[in-house]
Description:
Blueprint: E1 4-5, E2 10-11, H1 17-20, H2 30-36, H3 43-46, H4 61-76, E3 81-82, E4 88-95, E5 98-108, H5 109-114, E6 117-118, H6 125-138, E7 140-141, E8 145-149, H7 153-162, E9 169-172, E10 178-184, H8 187-198, E11 203-207, H9 209-224, E12 237-244, E13 250-251, E14 253-257, H10 265-272, E15 276-282, E16 293-298, E17 301-307, H11 322-332, E18 346-350, H12 355-363, E19 369-372, H13 378-386, E20 397-398, E21 409-410
Parallel strand pairs: 6-11, 8-12
Antiparallel strand pairs: 1-5, 2-3, 4-5, 4-10, 5-12, 7-21, 8-11, 9-10, 13-20, 14-18, 14-19, 15-17, 16-17, 16-19
Helix pairs in contact: 4-6, 6-9
Amino acid sequence: MVRIKPFQGVRPPKQYASEVASRPYDVLNSAEAKAEATERSLLHIIKPEIDFDPIADEHSEVVYQKAVENFQLWQQRGWLERDGKECYYVYAQTMDGRTQYGLVMCCHFEDYLSGAIKKHELTRPDKEEDRMIHVRNQRANIEPVFFAYPDNAEIDAIVNRIIQAPAEYDFTAADGFGHQLWVIDDEQTCNRITEIFKSIPALYVADGHHRTAAAARVGAECKANNPNHTGEEEYCYFLAVTFPESHLRIIDYNRVVKDLNGLSSEQFLAALDADFVVEKVGEEIYTPSALHNFSLYLDGCWYSLTAREGTYDDNDPIGVLDVTVLSNLVLDKVLDIKDLRTSKRIDFVGGIRGLGELKRRVDSGEMKAAFALYPVSMRQLIDIADTGNIMPPKTTWFEPKLRSGVVIHTF
């Protein structure tokens, strides 16, 4: 059982929606945000260091206070307005002709602490703390987290009915991805959505582990500071967009390495032959065809690497993952890269950039070799979360990203 509720969203008027809504804080650096931010952009609130010249330290107190100041200013100027009643919202994203429909809702922090909201990644305390300061200072969840839930036919039917009406927002962002929002303000429908989710056993963090952990910590902090805490206070809830699992698609998350650990290219390929069937493909980009098949780009040429039977464990939620196979058999065994989180000899490239980006980084001389992986499935992610396991670093890449500022939750 999970606890959710509708809420009075703070969001831009229709005419400002496409300008206010921005990419999330963690997909662009400060210089990129400064270049991208227009006058009304939410980037001034989620990356307020861009309002200083030169750009300020994003973790400084003056920057945290600037975020609060800008959030208040956006409301005073009418660029963000509060809905008059508690609502749910349908948020749709379209990429490459494919649309996924999620429900914007508030989730209870205790469900995260109890494990009813399940995670699949570890978080870093410093990043948690940074997000926690923003939530605490703003008394708001400015950016949503990205959850999945097991498919439910009745929720599908409700969403399908809602989207027959014209959308409140309907815009295409600069990256070509479409975004639409519908407001669910009918009390009977809202009550029914809340009831249905009481029968859903778990939600799954798809993207936004640090934001989720930070929101839960703020909720626990507010609880500790309130002797009359009931568990229904607005601070108990945080902002999420929750999609049926069948709507979501994880794309590949690839690796590039700086060196071959002292091996020549020939020695490296020979070492791979112990655990992989190595086939030279040629100069045309080669995309992995199935689980346990990898692409290698080396010396201007693409190779197919297929892990030999017995080198992986398809009955183990972690052992079946291609990130595990590559880490164990290549990065650790051959290249002596032990810790993916700290090693300076490896970098990670989201699949949204395409395999051409791998080729570019190797051809430029910056990197020596690149590996492309077959994407993880939602079923694999859920199996890992259900068994209490943690995925290796940089395993999943969800696209499109949620736009920040479409709806905000305050408490």
